[in-house]
Specification:
globular, binds flavin-adenine dinucleotide, alpha+beta, 10% strand, 23 helices, binds ligand LGGBLMCM
């Protein structure tokens, strides 16, 4: 029934102040107010309607994205939205497109790697969208191995220009978002060659298309790489290819904040670490962690509301059928995902802080925390995106058959989200960066250099390598110190075990490649410890609102104990817990599920998502699922006519043939 809240009973059960939880989720009262206002602004504008994406052709979808992006830009200007509001606006628009790369990578690359002069020249143009840019790093032959890029930028002292060239087919740029059909400019990563010497990969601002008629400039071959996974979904994005044929750019279009080429062609490296050329990726990886909590919370919101609406099988006393959310199996799959959404939110907040901190330090020429910032952004990007992609698919299954319907919102969410496990660094490749960092830290233990930041616990190796968990009863698993100690012992012991195994190899690189799988496991254990510890830090801080802290505590321990259960092999094999303690953890987890159950719907309401943003019949705020499923079905183009197109050509002849042969 229209106007009736089918989830009202669920909402009445909540034991906490949902409005205060909304503020905790948003990060601050101000952030909540911005999100709340902007999400409704987008939802109420018919231009941003998105339910027909699945039945649009690629060209229609692409044009629809252009239309939405242009309309969004007009509104952002007319309403004079701040940067923060504009970011929220684009995110609630919820349609991947070239603007994501323009604002998300092109502009940050110029800010991070351009000199003051270059910023003054290019940023006003980019900020007014008089030029549109993308980030062209990956090539057909190399994505992960950035040092293996083949595109060359050879300095020509005669003309004071760089000649950008794609010497092989595999050197063609391949994948950059926004490149295929829209971008007028790109930050292109190419091997810098001066006086015949290869100085490795550097960034260059390159104009690709005419600003008059949008045609590619002479020497540029550019286009879209074709359809990607899923209908609709990420196909709104024009991921592109790009080939250069001795294309010339002025010398001052090399991004020269980190190193320079003089008029004479002399390469001048500054004293900052060369890895800063990867700075844009660090920035984006950091933002991907918060995005993971957005995507996972959307899926969890849909699955939770629907699990409360959906009923299967009579209850034991023969009354109404059981809400599927009451099955312990459903809770065991759903509630850890709900907890993960909150966990990723808080670790994302912390990572943002870490990123801001390292940026300020770099500006003051303090590079000490750069390796940790790289390891944290890489590892947490990897861990949270993998868990989120798996979590969205789990939410689809939690919704049974209807989860497979496009209008559940879950197939598209999955299709759009899953490449996050690959872009901005393949998730395995990134964990190996964490592993390198951990191995280095372990090798320095005892050298007098105390590990700091997220590896501070390694400085307590003497204790952590020997200690036995003191958990004796199920409630002990609600003790933050005991939980942290188990996670620290597991992470440290896995890292030390890898380091010991590595030391058995004469050649460290060979040892590393033999032990890759174990190293990735150790890196994941370290990242999980970070997430657990940041969640615990959150619940130990000041939190307002009736019952809010209590709910967050439950979620925190569900997150931690579910991880313990899932990776029990690690915890047992490292002697970080005993089988008895593991069984107490499972007992505690079940109790936490029961405590969470009455609050489940309210906890997803706290995400404050509009029905527009959720884009799901199953996740509707009012829970009015069944009539709306029918409405959606009737909107399908196949239902435009009762007798389908093709009946006379293909169905009728079959049936008639059958009748004729039956008569024989
Ligand atoms: C808005 C969302 C839309 C998203 C659209 C998507 C966009 C993209 O996908 S853009 C392309 C993204 N591409 C990647 O992420 C490529 C992944 N590969 C890499 O980042 C690197 O090549 C690498 C980290 C895997 C390896 O780097 P490399 O220098 O070739 O090799 P080393 O292993 O020898 O590293 C040397 C040294 O530098 C440290 N390091 C590496 N990266 C960074 C960094 N970003 N910041 C700081 N330090 C870094 C590395 O750990 C090594 O340190 P040491 O062991 O101490 O020598
Ligand atoms: C949707 C999407 C958008 C993208 N947008 C952009 C963009 O805007 N700009 C841009 O420049 N790029 C972009 N990319 C490219 C992206 O960054 C790369 O695809 C990514 O970095 C992975 O590199 P790869 O494709 O070379 O994978 P590969 O490295 O070829 O990975 C293949 C397999 O090999 C494994 N592997 C590779 N190296 C190692 C190793 N050393 N040890 C162990 N295993 C290894 C990986 O784990 C993986 O299983 C995008 C990609 C996608 C899918």
């Amino acid at each position: 029934m229209e106007g009736v809240d089918h989830l009202a009973d669920e909402r009445n059960k909540a034991e906490f102040d949902v409005e205060e939880m909304k503020i905790v989720w948003a990060g601050s009262r101000h952030a909540f107010q911005v999100s709340n206002r902007i999400s409704r602004l987008v939802a109420n504008d018919p231009i941003f309607e998105k339910s027909k994406r699945a039945v649009m052709s690629r060209k229609e979808l692409f044009k629809n994205t252009l239309k939405k992006s242009a309309h969004a830009w007009k509104m952002i200007n007319e309403l004079r939205l701040s940067d923060e509001e504009s970011i929220r606006f684009r995110s609630f628009m919820d349609q991947p497109g070239f603007v994501d790369l323009h604002w998300g990578m092109f502009v940050p690359a110029i800010k991070g790697q351009g000199t003051e002069e270059q910023q003054q020249k290019w940023l006003p143009l980019a900020n007014n969208m008089q030029i549109i840019g993308c980030y062209a790093q990956t090539e057909l032959g190399h994505g992960s191995h950035v040092q293996g890029l083949e595109t060359t930028a050879t300095f020509d002292p005669q003309t004071d220009q760089f000649i950008i060239h794609s010497p092989t087919q595999t050197s063609s740029k391949w994948w950059p978002g926004g490149l295929g059909k829209v971008s007028t400019h790109a930050v292109v990563y190419a091997r810098l060659i001066t006086n015949g010497k290869d100085h490795g990969v550097h960034g260059f601002i390159v104009q690709l298309r005419s600003l008059d008629d949008h045609s590619p400039l002479p020497g540029i071959t550019v286009g879209d790489i074709g359809m990607k996974f899923g209908n609709g979904a990420y196909n709104s994005m024009d991921n592109g290819f790009l080939k250069f044929d001795h294309f010339r750019i002025p010398r001052d279009q090399m991004l020269m904040r980190l190193s320079k080429v003089t008029r004479e062609g002399k390469y001048v490296a500054s004293d900052v670490p060369r890895q800063l050329v990867y700075g844009t990726m660090v920035f984006v990886r950091q933002s991907i962690v918060s995005n993971a909590s957005n995507a996972l919370s959307r899926a969890v919101c849909i699955a939770t509301r629907y699990s409360a609406v959906r009923r299967q099988f009579a209850s034991q006393n023969g009354g109404t059928e059981t809400q599927v959310i009451d099955y312990k199996t459903q809770q065991n799959r759903l509630f850890p995902l709900l907890a993960s959404a909150y966990a990723f939110r808080f670790v994302g907040e912390w990572l943002k802080w870490l990123y801001t901190d390292v940026t300020q330090r770099l500006e003051a020429s303090d590079f000490a925390t750069l390796p940790e910032a790289h390891a944290c952004t890489a590892g947490l990007k990897s861990m949270t995106t993998s868990a989120t992609a798996d979590g969205i698919e789990e939410c689809r299954k939690l919704c049974g058959g209807h989860g497979y319907l496009w209008c559940s919102g879950l197939p598209e969410l999955f299709a759009v989200y899953v490449p996050a496990c690959t872009y901005e660094g393949d998730n395995v490749v990134l964990q190996l960066q964490v592993a390198r960092f951990l191995m280095k830290t372990v090798s320095q233990l005892g050298s007098g250099k105390a590990p700091a930041g997220t590896t501070e616990y390694m400085g307590r190796a003497q204790h952590l390598l020997k200690c036995r968990s003191s958990v004796k009863k199920a409630e002990d698993w609600l003790n933050p110190g005991m939980v942290l100690e188990a996670f620290e012992a597991r992470a440290l012991r896995m890292a030390v075990s890898c380091a010991n195994n590595l030391s058995k190899f004469e050649n460290q690189e060979q040892g590393f490649s033999e032990l890759l799988a174990d190293l990735v496991e150790a890196a994941i254990a370290h990242c999980q410890l970070i997430v657990v510890s940041k969640f615990i830090a959150k619940i130990e801080g000041e939190i307002k609102g009736k019952g809010v802290k209590n709910q967050l505590k439950n979620l925190c321990y569900i997150y931690a104990l579910h991880l313990l259960h899932k990776h029990l092999g690690d915890f047992l094999s490292t002697d970080s817990v005993t089988p008895e303690q593991a069984s107490l953890a499972s007992h505690q987890l079940r109790s936490l599920y029961s405590q969470l159950r009455p609050n489940a719907v309210a906890l997803v309401d706290a995400f404050n998502y509009t029905d527009h943003y959720l884009g799901s019949v199953l996740g509707r705020y009012d829970g009015n699922v069944y009539p709306k499923l029918f409405e959606e079905a009737l909107k399908d183009p196949l239902n435009d006519s009762v007798v389908p197109d093709g009946y006379h050509e293909y169905i009728r002849p079959l049936i008639k043939q059958h009748i004729r042969s039956a008569r024989l």
